[in-house]
Fold this sequence. Notes:
By secondary structure, the protein is mainly beta. The protein has one domain (2-359, 394-411, 422-489): Porin, CATH 2.40.160. The chain has helices at residues 11-14, 22-29, 37-41, 151-162, 169-172, 180-187, 385-394; strands at 70-86, 89-110, 121-135, 138-146, 191-193, 201-203, 211-234, 238-260, 271-283, 286-296, 299-306, 310-325, 328-333, 337-344, 348-357, 361-371, 376-378, 397-409, 412-420, 433-443, 447-462, 473-489. Strand 10 and strand 11 (299-306) form a beta hairpin.
Amino acid sequence: MRWLFVCIALGSMIQTGIAQNELDALRYSQVDVLGSARYASMSGAFGALGGDMAGMSTNPAGIGVFTRTTGSATISILSASTDANFSGTTTSDNKLNFNIANAGFVARFKRKKASDRQWALKALHLGVSYNRTANFHRRTSIINTNSSSSLIDSWVNQLNNEAIPYPDIPAEFIPGGQSTGAYMGWQSFLIDTVPGSTTSYLRNVMPNYGQTQRVRELTKGGMGEVAISFGGNFGNSLYFGATVGIPRLNYELERSYTESDSQDTISNFNSFTQTDYLKASGTGFNVKFGMIYRPAKWVRIGAAIHTPTYFEIDESFSSFLSSDLDGVQFNQSTLQGTFGYSLQTPFRAIGSLAFVIGEMGLISADYEYVNYSLAQFRSRDYAFDSENLDVRNRLSWAGNIRIGTEWRIKAISIRGGFGLNADPNTSELNFNNTRYSLGLGLRLERFFVDLAYNLHRTVGAYQLYDYTNVPLAETTTLDHSVIFTVGFRF
């Protein structure tokens, strides 16, 4: 069942505040199939094709395939729906998002006196593009009755393990740090000491379980990359390119966790709610190199290497807790905490193969290798030894497969694609992270327009809190995207 970690949410991380972990490393290391409508409609299988604005962030050599100076822009509408099953109870929620998926311009400089020799330099290209590489827009709802544990238990367990004398609990509290929940629970009279002890703790409420647990989580933001690319074309047989990428990430989380006595079966307790806020933003840098070779008119071979991305990330976070103990209410909040750190994502290697059937159509496939266990956190103010060890032990390499096809009827193109991402924890290929795509295109002499539909299905799990025998909520997320591109050739 380790596959459940693929999309496991931040329920456990929120309890420890600042603690970056393998989930953060994975979130910012995974690159989605977004970009132009043509690229998306073939599920990103463009490494051996090129000639598309979004493809420059996959294989930079694709810039050398452009036969004219070209500019294009792409918009996307996303509908993300999540079903969560927690102990037999299923809840659904969804979120809409409108974004710019791609925009760019490629200038082609043809050599006026290019030789007819096989390896003569035919043209040079310079391009600038923006590609959206991840969407974090989600809305998740979970509800069920728990008869065996409470979030308060995890706080009590923490205090008992650390044996913190109760007068020192505020001193141990660091805004956003590991004692955040326990401190607020103590201040809100949800926790008390065992009679006669100053270092042993118990729940001050809930002599019996049976409370309703509810989670509402909203995430926003995404990742996008500005790509500055240079490439060329030798004899219409060998294409080369290099890209300097400047990615930007924005991630926002608002998570509300509630336990309530909805059946009125627990004495001296009505409810408590903990709300956590997290905002992360960062800028990175990477370099990509690629080539495409045409040994014959009907076949193309592509290869690309992406260096790790080096991110500088700043986070801000805060928490608020309110409790209602049979009409007596208590409120507690933290100051806003901040923390900055560096993240190095893993390198990527992509091999591609495409077959071109005359003017009729083509079939293309990409295989992408990425080892997520190579991601690393760094900071001047904190040693990430245990967190980096968790990344190495809990994440693994993954081989991602993308297949696409395009068939032409005069000026009209019909496209389709499929993508399968391996489990980043076990390297297994299963159908828990899949993509299905369709598209249409119209190509005229100086104008083109493309339309795509993408369905991205991910199966994972959500951990409400970190405590023994707390069941995971199984989640299924369906991202429906409609993508539209318009472009001009000069």
